[in-house]
Amino acid sequence: MKILIVYKSIHHGNTEKIARTMADVINADILSTRDATPQIIGRYDLIGFGSGIYFGKHHHKLLSLAEDLPEVKGKKAFIFSTSGLRELPIIHNFNKELKKRLLEKKYQLIGIFSCRGFDTYGLLKLIGGIQKERPNDEDLSNAIAFAENLIE
C-alpha cells in the first residue's frame, strides 16, 4: 500500500512533528501542501491530511487542496491536527470542513487524530503562548499508535 501524508505546518512546526512521526512509523511519503498536487495525491492508496487549527478549522491551503481533488471511489484517508485549544464540539468541530470536502470527493475516512500544540497566535503571544511543551512524548506515542492502527 502506498501511503502519503500531506500537511501544512507554520508557526512552531507542531503539525510537521506529528506528520513526520506518523510517516516514519508507516513508511509514508510526506509532502507539504506547497508541494502536493491532486495528481501526486492520486498515486497513493491511503492519504493523511493535516494542519494546525486556525479559527476552528484546518489551514485554508489544506482545505483548498482538498477542494481541488477529483472524485475517487473508496480511496482511504485520515485527518490529523494540532491546536493550542481543545475542541469543544458544541461550539466548533475542527474537522468539519475538511471531513466534508473529503467525503464529497468519496474518500473513505478511516481515522482522525488530534493533539495539542504550542500556540502563540494573536494575544496568546503576550503571555508567552499556551501548550509550550506540546506536542510532547505522550502526544508522539499516541500519534504512533494511531498510525500503526491505520495499517493493521
TrEMBL record:
InterPro entries: Flavodoxin/NO_synth, Flavodoxin_dom, Flavoprotein-like_sf, Protoporphyrinogen_IX_DH
Swiss-Prot/TrEMBL GO biological process terms: heme biosynthetic process
A molecular function (GO) term: menaquinone-dependent protoporphyrinogen oxidase activity
Domain Flavodoxin-like residue range list: 4-151
Top-level taxon: Bacteria
Protein name, as recorded: Flavodoxin
